[in-house]
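Sat 14:20. Reprocessing the chain from the morning session after the first attempt stalled halfway. Input below, unchanged.
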Amino acid sequence: MDIRNATNPKDMKHYDSERLREEYFIGGLFVPGEIKFVYSHVDRIIAGSACPTTKALNLEENVDTQKDLGTDFFLQRRELGVINIGEAGIITVDGEKYEIGPRDGIYIGMGNKNIEFSSVDPNKPAKFYINSAPAHKTYPTVKIDISQAEKETLGSQEEANRRTINKYIIPTTVKSCQLTMGMTALEPGSVWNTMPTHTHDRRMEVYLYFDMDEDSVVFHMMGEPDETRHIVMRNEEAVISPSWSIHSGVGTKNYTFIWGMVGENQTFSDMDHVAMKDIR
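Finished this time. Tokens:
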């Protein structure tokens, strides 16, 4: 498991592009036949992927929980959310199988011991994107079809930010301790997400960008509002946003991204909005 330390915004002002990527960028996800994880000390989120092919991938067999978490098994003190951005797959939770189609999700509560990821067709593998947060209580495991996600459409074509937010794990749909998770899809001709931008000092956030062709990029904006930087993102790459940082992006074409948040509360609208005149 790749470990990332928390960083101070005063230090971030001095980072060049390489150092920004070293601290916040998450690449190399969705390797066929592997589970990949990054552990961030920012609210202790774990973000990563599982891409099973010819055989199932067992979570416990691919993570050294004693070394990395200090626990007997991965979900002993954690909860986990998954959204599938690949083809049809199956997630088995302590013997119970859940069919997870393209864009479907699942919440898995604290205390489940045996988690396995598999693909229906090894030649068309599932791509399970995973977020995990510390937990204090066990909530039921719930599969979330894309059709069941709470939807909200925002923006306009004139502002190049027409988008639909699919809320998978939020208090009104699925109970969790602190993890919230969803997927935002931009319409053709729209390239901006979350602008005007915001911070939320009570929560951190991780974005996974995908649905991008080989020549497309997203310029992900981060940093304190008056001291911004950017990281160039490509298909199926993720980025860590500390609570003090804005998190917004503009792409060369429309794209989709998954957002996952952990922290002090689960109120989706808890944001500290930044006026356009204050961004530097």
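The chain is about 5% helix and 45% strand.
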